[in-house]
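User: I need a structural model of Long-chain fatty acid--CoA ligase from Nocardioides albidus for a docking pre-check later this week. Nothing fancy, just the predicted structure tokens so I can convert them on my end. Input:
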Amino acid sequence: MTSLGYLPWHRPSAYDARPAVRDEQNDLTYADFAARVDAVAEQFSEHGVGRGSVVAIMLPNRVELLVAMVAAWRLGAAATPINPAFTANEADYQIQDADSALVINAGPDAPDGGRPSLSVDDLRRESHGTLSPAATSPDELALLVYTSGSTGRPKGVMLDHANLEAMSSMMVDVMRLDAEDRCLLFLPLFHVNAICVSFLAPARVGAQLSVMSRFTVDGFLDEVERLRPTYFSGVPTIYSMLLAQPREVDFSSVRFAACGAAPASKELLDATEKRFGFALAEGYGLTECTCASNSNRWWDVRKVGTVGPAFPGVRVEVMDQDGTILPAGERGEVVIQGPTVMRGYLNRPEETAETLRDGWLHTGDVGILDEDGYLRIVDRIKDMIIRGGENIYPKEIEAVLLAHPGVMEAAVIGAPDEKFGEVPFAYVACFPDTKVAADALMDDCRTQLSRYKVPVGITILGALPKNPIGKIDKPTLRAQHPVTSIGA
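Assistant: Understood. Predicted structure tokens for Long-chain fatty acid--CoA ligase:
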């Protein structure tokens, strides 16, 4: 049977005295963490949670979120983490859609979806010793992680313990983690990136995790100086923010950092490595494959502009519309096979069948594999702009805009057009205290792009809207368009 080595009851006893996880209020060894899990699992059991139940957890980043999640697993139940910034309407939808038996939240004024709830401050810290031995199985549902819902109501992605076992094991291999590693976590724990990269993977090897409740530039830099982490995981926006600030901090303890969730420009990756001195490994994945399928290895050949080769045990191919796997160098949809592919979407059989068809997870991303198996993401299929029959990939235009030294973020959308159906329109945010003329950006586009790819306009904003996991929120930009802009 699979070891499920990230769970307290499968870890070597040699880990017991090692530091496991800390935040602003807690500093727990592995033995402390396991004891807290047992105490909370007993409490959950008294509230009717058992095998097959779902526990909803609506908390900011803190140790108790992790304790509650693992306590659910201790009972054979699943956890569904909820963005703590959600409105009551958004939270209630997820709580009810997941059919949650219990909600863990910040207190009586927090959303509960009409279900029984426990305040985080009331979670038990000491066990009464009443639980039977843990018997968590690889085929049991572990996580219900809800997609961002950019194409409709969010869907619950069903991930079982076999998925988490495979993902955490692959990450230990790809990141070369060991017991001496110290991870600094600041990404939100309602997303699989933070859960898998920063919690489950280090837990497999007895490494340490320090949890930040939220990311601020100065707060992060303070923690780097104080805790001396060996790695962390971020998104492109965060690395842009770090580059934009003047403070110099000693990053010599950091072996590598991961970058994912959204495409990063070559300029951003190169500038980050040059300034801070650590290897920055860009990767790719999605919730439906338990976080990641590809990554550049920080310790091996890194091809900037690609998201690296597939994880060990995962097959990644590029496929045309007829289902034919394409050779290296050709453009098509990225498809994935392997033990990390989700069970499906909760209570969504038609959407599950559409995404998991013919034995492949269809990602909706357009990519190209090179001769070495390194994947380059071209764009999202749904983001592709069709201008009078010509296909335009926004990422190509965004790359030109991001190459300008004053541009921090760029997003290109398809704007309605009576003549061509839709045309490219760009939104840009600049680095702090930097001014960039839209005309200059337009000149760059005219110089480097075919005429039909040049945006019809560029709007410069103070900041681009983000979704809860830090990706640029193109649906919001589309909803806000048209706006006053500087045309081509």
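Before docking, keep this in mind: The chain has two domains: 8-369, 384-487.
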